[in-house]
Amino acid sequence: MKDLSGLMKQAQGMQARLAEAQAKIAETIVEGSAGGGLVKVNLSGSGVLGAVMIADELLQPGEGETLADLIVAAHADAKARLDAASEQAMKEAMGPLAGLAGGIPGLKF
Description:
Blueprint: H1 2-27, E1 29-34, E2 39-44, E3 49-54, H2 64-94
């Protein structure tokens, strides 16, 4: 029974670390950019688009399609950065068990 008690304590500790990691992720703000920095977006850890910055030279007649493409690309860049930050935070929270996540169906880190 001592082993079961120790295992339960470890599981509770991991749950606490995962909750902390999720809170940290929720507070994270990442910036994505496109077009060499002509368009930048801020994305929160919860996936909310918080800001869009557009260089003045894109605010010219005829640049609408380019601007739209760059906004989508900047958002994709920010999303990739957010995913990487989330994955890293979860790996840190899992500690030595992070390597096991790949072998559990439905669990991805």
